[in-house]
Hints:
The chain has a single domain, classed as Purple Acid Phosphatase, chain A, domain 2 (4-Layer Sandwich), CATH 3.60.21. Helices cover 35% and strands 24% of the residues. The chain has eight helices and eleven strands. Strands 4-3-2-1-10-11 form a six-stranded mixed sheet. A five-stranded mixed sheet has the order 5-6-7-9-8. Bound molecules: manganese (II) ion. Manganese (II) ion (MN) binds at residues 9, 41-42, 79-80, 115, 117, 196.
Amino acid sequence: MNTTLFVSDLHLCPTRPAINQAFFDFLRGPAAQAQAVYILGDLFESWAGDDDDDPFNGSILQALRSLSSTGVTLYLMHGNRDFLIGQRFSADSGATLLPDPTLLDLYGTPTLLMHGDTLCTDDIGYQEFRKKVRDPRYQQQFLAQPLVNRKQIIAGLQTENVEKKQLKSDAIMDVTPATVEAVLREYRYPRLIHGHTHRPAVHKHIVDGRVCERWVLADWYTTGSYLASDATGLKNVELPVAGGTRV
Ligand code: MN
């Protein structure tokens, strides 16, 4: 079927089995019927390196490979949680790693794909952290450490982040409108699809007199969902999750 699906911010981890099951069902169901599936970052809650052969990671990798091996084109963009996903995971899962941002022609509509964290420029502390950890030299040094040490560092950062988030205002945690406008202008007024903020919505931005839609994908904390695109447009689809509740 000529459909393209988008998901982001699944934050998969072993402690949310109902969500993991919803993801497996999604891959075997709607994803298997699609032409292409784009995962726009934060597929995993954390990623310490492709050499982490934790069975949970293996089960996700296997499910992705089952999808890509049937001919569905699978794309993966890094999120702020799983930006250390590398060539090995990409090759083994059959997912093509996409740069952030990526501009594509989606059934005739220019569409810009992003994870979304680079739009949150009011969060200066985060942007500084991002600059540091996205430096290839930093990543090389980090990945050269034993896996157990890397996992410890990541766990420490996550605790620190929870504390920091409690001190940050809602506005700081969302995208910065001026940054969104600058990106839309730079890419010649496309439609924008991103995740990261966990604030699903469709926004309209008027930039230089041009109307640009911004579709924000939902996270998979309590329910699963995806954005389906075909020649008729975009629509958000909710997935059943066992025991799932809306918050
Ligand atoms: Mn994110």
